[in-house]
Specification:
With 231 residues, this protein is α/β, with parallel strands linked by helices. It has 2 domains: 2-43; 79-229, Ribonuclease H-like superfamily/Ribonuclease H (Nucleotidyltransferase, domain 5), CATH 3.30.420. The protein is built from 9 helices and 5 strands. It has a 5-stranded mixed β-sheet with strand order 3-2-1-4-5, sandwiched between helices.
Amino acid sequence: MDLIDKIYTDYPFYGNRRIKNELNLTHHIPIGRDHVRTLMETMGIQAIYPKKNLSWPNKQHQVYPYLLRNLKIDKPNQVWSVDITYIKLTVGFAYLVAIIDWFSRYVINWKLANSLDIEFCLDCLNEAVGQNKNKPEIFNSDQGSHFTSPKFIGILKNNNIQISMDGRGRCLDNIFVERLWRTVKQENIYLNSYQNVKETKTGLNEYFLFYNNRRRHQSLNYLTPREVHFQ
């Protein structure tokens, strides 16, 4: 699954057929398409059409419209966004949730868990809005059941935050978080053979401190996310 995750991170538009061919022809791993499909379902990833989603929709939950189309993002805390990604460990796997500011690319908060229970997402959001004097005007997510749940939505409503959700099958509606996952995996996860959740948390804590405070972004005129966010 680790290799599938690497291929998918580099080529998120690959479905199970193309990943199977990549494994067969490039890496010389004899594996069938059905097995690849099963592994991808276990990891919670799909080609970007339909959208990658680790938190599957709940038809009983309310879905909110996408508010960011053609919106000019010109200041910090105008839009925050959230997503979940899969992380392969030496034994087993974990899930990472992060909240990012669209304008500055600053990671507001993140949490790691060894299951997809909603509590780690709620903790991440509660800490984000509780520890920051400036709350976002708009909060964007996909339509997964974690982010449409009454508990998650209730936190946003109680803080008078507008709710925006990606269109179904539209990976690029949440493009900045998608880019964050690629960066985190290529610059940290794939370079470290993390054994367990505790070790991964320690490594990611060091990385996100670097990402926010020292990593300069070309799209930010080579400033760091912190410099832009707290300008």
